[in-house]
Amino acid sequence: MDWDDLRVFLAVARAESLSGAGRVLKCDAATVGRRVARLEAAMGAALFAKSPQGYALTEAGGRLLPHAEAAEAAMTGAAEALAGPDGSLTGQLRIGAPDGCANYLLPQVCAEISDAHPGLEIQIVALPRVFNLSKREADMAIAVSPPSAGRLTVQKLVDYQLHLAGHEAYLATHPTIRSRADLSPHRIVGYIPDMIFDKELDYLAETRAEMVRLASNSVSVQMQMLRAGAGLGIVHDFALPFTPGVVRVLPDDIALSRTFWLIRHADDRRSARLERLATALGRGMRREVARLEALASTGALAASPTRISGAA
């Protein structure tokens, strides 16, 4: 059995289509189809069932999957064993994260990791949804809630704070806010209710508002709405230093705490490379959240990212 054929098998199993696998493997769908057919002939069994929805694993394919994943882990381990003598890491690392984390935290943290490991290719995938690690959409994912199912390992990264906020120009031209009771005439910016992908992101009850008047599924868009003087919204403290003029409102009364979790496929715990990267990511996230929240509490602006020592 050829490892390259197993690699093609894994790509199709995860993408559930020949074209999707081809994009991952950087080859055309016809070539992927021929490789699958060759593997099926060698195995003497159909590994995929084709339907209008795509390629689904057959019973035989399901039995092959864990063995193919084990082979993949072994190949990765062999590459790690041959890494450079300076201990630097190479290869690709894809991190999936909610867009608030991806926009305001990961650029600085990943820059430091990249400095320590110049041969590493880091990709940040910012999507307002939960990542499917079983399909290898990412090597590791950051989430606001720990998953309750799946062959995954979960590690707490860092707690972070959120407050109600608005732009100084908006606050200067709208009714004064001294308590929650004063919020009713104010326009609320927040998530699109039916697109909230995690219960931890449902902040509406904290503002006592009946509905969000200006909404987006993106934290960055919400922040730009506040920056434009559109209203009030619950925002991450670590984002405030990047949004001049946006300040906390009722900080002693409306304060939330949430947690970022690092999620990985269970098999990846055997990878020394990914263990080192997970450690560096966690260390960097904790330092950067602490730095930015300190700036937010003093009203200072982050002119440029601070270098985080000890990236790995």
From TrEMBL:
Record GO biological process: DNA-templated transcription
Keywords: DNA-binding, Transcription, Transcription regulation
A molecular-function term among this protein's GO annotations: sequence-specific DNA binding
PANTHER family, A to Z: HTH-TYPE TRANSCRIPTIONAL REGULATOR, TRANSCRIPTIONAL REGULATORY PROTEIN
Name this polypeptide is given: LysR family transcriptional regulator
Domain HTH lysR-type, residue spans: 1-58
Gene3D superfamilies to which the protein is assigned, alphabetical: 3.40.190.290, Winged helix-like DNA-binding domain superfamily/Winged helix DNA-binding domain (1.10.10.10)
Family statement: Belongs to the LysR transcriptional regulatory family.
